[in-house]
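STRUCTURE:
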């Protein structure tokens, strides 16, 4: 029996122990003022009572957690549970961990399928019939890839480090023949990033339509993945980024100028969730990667070279050329030089067994899915096996890596000649390697080897009626080669290498054209042309025809994608056979050199010296360096140069750094000027920890 004069239990302070919980939950680097923990894993809080301490058997403690605007136990957004002697694995629970006088340490644990988000924690303390409620504070709950019962569980520790904790990375651009490593600062643990990611969830249209249902579904990474895929673009909502592909960026920021997600997300949050201008596929993918990693879902950016955009879903990309080899309008189908999306690791309990693991998610607005511009999650295993009827959007991604390419040559009499290229699409599918800055080729995850029996089985399984009729053998082959590479500011040569595999001499016409282009396949002005009416191919012989591409022709119209598209059309006079060869050439920018001055130690000032040599024959004006680096800089730093940089001279800047955290960090740099834009560089910096 409780004595009548016993004092009520009065809470004096509550310590949510941000630092120690952050270490055990691997959230200590998150720049949040709140406690951030992962679901399915215990965390500790310390209660200090006034007057007297907690007495087991006399005092009763119970906790309440709730998330969302209208929390209820029915929707799984609220839970009431007592403090007991031990934790439970499948429900919210709390247990006494230790007591020292008036101090009481409690261990709390969420179930591994709890809803993620911002929670309020309160306590009810009662002695006999007397009870009082205390507000203990707020905390943020995330997915937990370290918890075996979580649907985002990833077994390998190195992969968890790479795909959840690593804040910098590399995105692959360029072309299949010249793959370019572009550094990116994901910065998912930077100040207020986790709050911004939760704001993104609270801004999605499904939340506004039904807040209870939306918050209730936030325990499912499949649902979260679709929401993030839709919200990173702004085509149907208050999404983060506006896309643009026409090289007209004066009212915003060129997609090539971004070097990190943090500045983009901060601008979106700061200006009332208005879309940030502008993004293209790698920017959409990188921002999605930041958000998903921040929320605790293992995620990586993937690049597919020669990526198909099939608008009529017939698994064929139709392109049209005139008789001189110039690309013509006639179809909305496209072959993108490269295309980026993300893969996220999760279980798929909504599907039959065998489809857990990497799921493709594409936030670039291309086609609608269930009425919204989003794509995925598509199980990569289903894409490889041709299982197109499963959720979500598998036919679209399947075509991106498997479509056949047909060139139609439009004749002056209205007829058309067809050439088929069945093994062009879906090349060198790439992502950054785990724990290293080198490329990992994951093409084999998406498709079987071209021409193999298994590949044909997959197409039959995908209910593809037939492949396009194979190209008739002409006895001639043609390839485009780049003997010495192509450097911005310099002339360069390309050659059409033609081989006659017959015993007869062949008389041909060769039309050989170079045009500047964008990475999504759109072409611009001509920058080189040959029309040779009499090309003689000796029996069983070879012919090499060069074409010089002059800087004075391409320099003023080169897009920020740095692509020159070369097309060669060979017509044999006697048989009227046509052969098409095409190649996208990446024009390489100069290298940025980064030198670190000082000893890299935590919380000790460093200086980065950054230089770039002007490779052009004219001065560079309006030069600036932009620098980012999670754990190295406070946000984005911009250094503008006052004077023009003359040909052959160095653009140079020094940037102060203040490393906040120890370990391997990546300093990411972008250079902009009137004639050179989107030049990227990075430097890894190992920061020594503070002495203990």
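SEQUENCE:
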């Amino acid at each position: 029996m409780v004595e009548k004069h016993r004092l009520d239990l009065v809470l004096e302070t509550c310590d949510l122990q941000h630092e120690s919980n952050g270490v055990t939950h691997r959230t200590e680097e998150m720049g949040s003022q709140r406690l951030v923990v992962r679901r399915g894993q215990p965390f500790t809080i310390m209660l200090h009572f006034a007057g007297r301490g907690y007495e087991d058997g006399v005092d009763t403690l119970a906790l309440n957690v709730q998330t969302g605007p209208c929390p209820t136990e029915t929707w799984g957004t609220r839970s009431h549970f007592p403090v007991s002697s031990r934790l439970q694995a499948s429900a919210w629970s709390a247990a006494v961990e230790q007591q020292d006088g008036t101090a009481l340490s409690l261990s709390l644990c969420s179930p591994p399928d709890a809803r993620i988000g911002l929670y309020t924690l309160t306590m009810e303390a009662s002695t006999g019939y007397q009870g009082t409620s205390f507000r203990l504070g707020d905390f943020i709950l995330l997915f937990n890839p370290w918890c075996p019962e979580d649907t985002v569980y990833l077994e390998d520790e190195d992969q968890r480090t790479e795909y959840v904790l690593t804040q910098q990375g590399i995105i692959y651009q360029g072309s299949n023949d010249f793959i370019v490593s572009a550094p990116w600062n994901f910065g998912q643990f930077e100040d207020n990033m986790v709050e911004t990611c939760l704001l993104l969830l609270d801004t999605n249209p499904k939340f506004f339509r039904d807040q209870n249902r939306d918050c209730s579904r936030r325990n499912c990474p499949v649902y979260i993945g679709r929401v993030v895929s839709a919200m990173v673009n702004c085509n149907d909502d208050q999404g983060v980024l506006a896309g643009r592909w026409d090289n007209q960026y004066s009212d915003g920021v060129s997609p090539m100028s971004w070097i990190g997600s943090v500045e983009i997300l901060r601008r979106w949050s700061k200006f009332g969730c208005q879309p940030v201008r502008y993004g293209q596929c790698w920017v959409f993918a990188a921002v999605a990667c930041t958000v998903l990693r921040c929320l605790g879902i293992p995620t990586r950016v993937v690049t597919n070279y020669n990526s198909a955009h099939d608008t009529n879903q017939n698994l064929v990309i139709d392109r049209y050329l005139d008789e001189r080899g110039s690309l013509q309008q006639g179809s909305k189908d496209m072959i993108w030089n490269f295309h980026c999306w993300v893969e996220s690791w999760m279980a798929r309990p909504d599907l039959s067994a065998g489809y857990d693991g990497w799921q493709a998610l594409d936030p670039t607005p291309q086609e609608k899915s269930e009425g919204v511009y989003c794509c995925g999650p598509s199980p990569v295993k289903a894409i490889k096996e041709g299982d197109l009827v499963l959720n979500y959007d598998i036919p679209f991604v399947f075509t991106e890596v498997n479509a056949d390419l047909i060139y139609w040559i439009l004749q002056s009499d209205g007829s058309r000649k067809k050439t088929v290229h069945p093994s062009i699409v879906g090349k060198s599918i790439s992502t950054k390697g785990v724990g290293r800055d080198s490329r990992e080729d994951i093409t084999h995850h998406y498709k079987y080897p071209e021409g193999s029996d298994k590949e044909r089985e997959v197409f039959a399984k995908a209910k593809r009626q037939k492949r396009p009729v194979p190209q008739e053998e002409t006895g001639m082959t043609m390839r485009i080669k780049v003997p010495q590479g192509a450097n911005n500011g310099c002339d360069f040569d390309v050659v059409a290498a033609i081989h006659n595999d017959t015993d007869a001499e062949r008389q041909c016409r060769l039309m050989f054209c170079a045009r500047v282009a964008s990475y999504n396949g759109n072409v611009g002005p001509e920058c080189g042309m040959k029309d040779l009416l009499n090309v003689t191919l000796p029996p069983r012989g070879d012919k090499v025809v060069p074409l010089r591409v002059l800087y004075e022709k391409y320099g003023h119209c080169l897009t920020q994608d740095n692509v020159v598209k070369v097309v060669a059309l060979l017509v044999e006079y006697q048989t009227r056979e046509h052969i098409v060869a095409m190649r996208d050439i990446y024009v390489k920018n100069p290298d940025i050199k980064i030198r670190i001055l000082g000893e890299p130690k935590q919380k000790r000032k460093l200086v980065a010296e950054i230089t770039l040599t002007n490779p052009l024959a004219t001065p560079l004006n309006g030069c600036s360096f932009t620098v980012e680096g999670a754990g190295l800089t406070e946000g984005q730093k911009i250094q503008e140069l006052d004077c023009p940089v003359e040909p052959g001279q160095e653009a140079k800047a020094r940037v102060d750094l203040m490393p906040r955290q120890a370990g391997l960090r990546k300093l990411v740099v972008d250079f902009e000027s009137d004639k050179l834009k989107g030049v990227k560089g990075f430097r890894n910096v190992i920061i020594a920890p503070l002495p203990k």
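REMARK: Residues 281-294 form the longest helix (14 residues).
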